[in-house]
Design goal:
This protein is of the alpha+beta class. The protein is built from 3 helices and 6 strands.
Length: about 130
């Protein structure tokens, strides 16, 4: 039986994948052994600025850590806006991982620093709140 939380994540990932294109990201230069769940992704409105994101737990323990370590070391593709939500997959693999901002923006409207087009995409994907 699949949990409500897992079903909610799958629905959110489907929304992201329906709206956003995949983008490839090169391997990360620093791969810290104890910190495999955290990533820095480019801000779509300011590519020189980075957004801290964290991979969400999907309940597959060691396989999850191995998948994330591989993504960090060998590169990955991601779809979404890291300020709201992202789907990530290691290059050459078929594992999908839900990712959220490390510090989610909890505003009722468009957050400061987010342009209107980015906000509209996030809302269309179901990740702009």
């Amino acid at each position: 039986m699949v949990s409500e939380r897992r079903l909610s994540r799958v629905k959110q990932m489907k929304g992201i994948l329906a709206v956003y294109q995949w983008k490839e990201h090169p391997p990360l230069k620093k791969v810290l052994p104890g910190d495999v769940t955290h990533f820095q992704l480019p801000d779509p409105d300011a590519p020189n600025k980075k957004v801290s994101v964290v991979a969400l737990r999907n309940g597959f323990g060691k396989r999850r850590r191995t998948t994330l370590t591989g993504a960090r070391a060998h590169g990955f593709a991601f779809a979404g806006d890291p300020r709201f939500g992202v789907v990530l997959t290691p290059l050459g693999q078929h594992e999908l991982i839900a990712v959220r901002p490390k510090h989610p923006q909890l505003s009722g409207g468009r957050p400061n620093g987010v342009d209107e087009a980015s906000w509209q995409l996030a809302q269309a994907a179901g990740i702009g709140h």
